[in-house]
Amino acid sequence: MENLLSEGLELMVFGMGFVFVFLTLLIFTTAGMSKVVSKYFPEAPAKPKAKKAAPAAATASNDELIAVMTAAVHKYRS
């Protein structure tokens, strides 16, 4: 019984150690790849976009859309 317990603990430690080593290696590999990619392909600075005012037609379209959706929900529930 004690031999079986020690083998189980040994297998658990080996499995958890393998997962820990793999995940640590994965973290360092991902960080390294990120540095390499950012070095050779730097991001262009983002340009601020000008905000446009919503036209009146869009508001009417939104009101129509809300009415259609309300009718569909009412039809579905009845």
Automatic annotation (TrEMBL):
EC annotation from Swiss-Prot or TrEMBL: 7.2.4.2
Regions crossing the membrane: 12-31
Parts forming coiled coils: none
Any Pfam family the entry gives: OAD_gamma
Main location: membrane
UniProt keyword annotation of Transmembrane present: yes
Recorded catalytic activity of this chain's protein: oxaloacetate + 2 Na(+)(in) + H(+) = pyruvate + 2 Na(+)(out) + CO2
UniProt keywords, alphabetically: Cell membrane, Ion transport, Membrane, Sodium, Sodium transport, Translocase, Transmembrane, Transmembrane helix, Transport
Entry's localization field: Cell membrane
Membrane topology, as annotated: Single-pass membrane protein
Cofactor: Na(+)
Keyword rRNA processing (UniProt): no
Family that this chain belongs to: Belongs to the OadG family.
Function: Catalyzes the decarboxylation of oxaloacetate coupled to Na(+) translocation.
Subunit structure as annotated in this protein's UniProt entry: Heterotrimer of an alpha, a beta and a gamma subunit.
NCBIfam families: oadG_fam
Record-given protein name: Probable oxaloacetate decarboxylase gamma chain
